[in-house]
Design a protein that fits this description.
The chain is an alpha/beta fold. About 35% of the residues lie in helices and about 20% in strands.
Length: about 350
């Protein structure tokens, strides 16, 4: 059966990193690589010494891969660097590059990832793993940060989205999603290839690799905003003018989300409205997406998988995650408080 590994550049609370690592170990990954974008003792406390889990300190290799020689300024550039370096070094046959809020999942429960990869013809260099974006169903309990359903990209959204969503929501979504619709790249090792944020690359400086196919029976579950506060901090970070490590570009819908949080940072009622429109579904919307085959009820049970793989009982309740997030993002929150009067507790889960 084909072997596979996974890599992410990470900067999140340690419990999420442990959940991500444990989930993928339990799913069958032979290597899990966490490239820390800044030092984090808590991640080492939870994961250091765990078999098959590799924690990489930022710049520990002196940025020697491809002769780069210095820390890339842009976030996307650092992601490409780490993923491409790991691809060149892994012993696995395949490497998936995603973020720590993205979890690989077989669409058919119980299916082995390696068995699905065995189906891929040798001529295929890389796979585009389609995305399924987590949404919250209104008036439904949220026992942990992974609860919810999953909507799929909607190719006809631009013409038909009005049939499901109101004007505010339509402004906030692209292809029917709040986040990206492109999916993530799973690339064969040993073929002198590289990995960008969403694509396999023939050249490190950006030429997209040919011989791509959709990943058979696999999805990346995208938790774009694990809580309201998590989503808010992401949007506020994007909205900081002149921040050099912001992603190079966003779709207009993403900028509409950013404006919804940045234009009046202290108006938490308006921010909740934006989050509700972009990230939650009412009953009628749920039914409409189900009828169109655009909503899935995957059950990854991340906490149980992490417990099985790591022997850890992680507190993944929304309130616990938000408390950890406030501690982890203390510097960013301090900047936002000084500039806007931002109060994270107004948006935190209780």
């Amino acid at each position: 059966m084909a072997s596979w590994a996974i890599v992410a550049m990470v900067d999140e609370p340690a419990a999420l990193l442990a959940a991500w690592a444990g989930h993928h170990l339990d799913l069958g990954a032979s290597e899990v690589h966490l490239c820390l974008d800044r030092p984090q003792e808590e991640a080492f406390d939870l994961l250091d010494g765990t078999p098959c889990v590799h924690l990489h300190l930022d710049g520990a290799d002196d940025w020697a891969f491809r002769g780069i020689g210095a820390r890339p300024v842009g976030m996307n550039a650092r992601q490409k660097y780490h993923a491409s370096r790991i691809l060149a070094q892994t012993r696995a046959e395949w490497l998936l590059h995603c973020d720590s809020d993205e979890f690989l999942w077989p669409e058919a429960p119980g299916t082995e990832v390696g068995a699905l990869l065995d189906q891929v013809p040798q001529k295929i260099n890389w796979l585009q793993v389609g995305v399924a974006e987590r949404v919250h169903l209104r008036k439904t309990p949220r026992p942990d940060i992974f609860a919810g359903a999953y909507r799929l990209p909607w190719p006809r959204y631009a013409n038909e989205g009005y049939q499901v969503y109101d004007a505010l929501t339509r402004e906030l979504l692209n292809y029917g999603l709040a986040g990206h619709h492109m999916g993530k790249a799973m690339v064969r090792a040993g073929r002198d290839l590289f990995i960008g944020v969403h694509h396999g690359l023939t050249r490190y400086n950006g030429q997209r690799c040919p011989a791509v196919a959709p990943a058979p029976g696999l999805r990346v579950l995208h938790y774009d905003g694990l809580t309201l506060l998590h989503f808010a901090l992401k949007m506020l970070r994007y909205g900081q003018e002149g921040r050099p490590d912001n992603p190079a570009s966003h779709a207009p819908a993403r900028w509409a989300q950013v404006r919804g949080f940045v234009d009046d940072v202290q108006a938490d009622d308006l921010q909740r409205l934006v989050y509700r429109a972009a990230k939650t579904l009412g009953l009628n919307q749920t039914v409409a997406l189900q009828e169109r085959g655009l909503l899935r009820q995957f059950q990854p049970d991340v906490a149980a998988r992490a417990r099985a793989a790591l022997g850890l009982s992680l507190d993944l309740r929304p309130a616990a995650f938000d408390r950890a997030l406030i501690c982890h993002e203390m510097a960013l929150i301090g900047q936002l408080q000084a500039r806007y009067g931002f109060d994270p507790k107004a948006l935190a889960a209780s």
